[in-house]
Amino acid sequence: MRRPVLAARAFAALALAALAGHGLSGRAVAADTVAADTGTVAVLQGLDKTTARVTKFEAPVGQPVSFGTLRITVRDCRKRPPEEEPESAAYLDIDEVLQDKTAPKHLFSGWMFASSPALNSLEDPVYDVWVLDCKTNATGSSQDKPG
Hints:
Blueprint: H1 2-21, E1 37-38, E2 41-48, E3 53-60, E4 65-67, E5 70-79, E6 88-96, E7 105-113, E8 127-135
Antiparallel strand pairs: 1-5, 2-3, 2-8, 4-5, 5-6, 6-7
């Protein structure tokens, strides 16, 4: 069960490096350079396929939030600096909390990218969830951070 998580993390690191390295010839690119700004809140959007309703919501890093029967925990949220090509990415853990009080069913762990939601997506018959942005707080985006 651990191998898919490790494979997803390796894939995400390669994808981050590829995104960061686009147009940067001759120099090594670390995954950290893709998103130098770390956000404290991820802006997510979810689709409930049964009602066809789209909901935009915020999820603080480290605090679980609910969307329908899903429990979403953002582990990390990063955004490129304003002088680089725009990109936000968040590492999400998504579980389905069932009404019968059994243990939550793990559905997804991995990086999601705002610019490429299909690159690494939640595969669920009822819900779609994707990343829109990362913010430093509930009101400003991470690029608005002083400094």
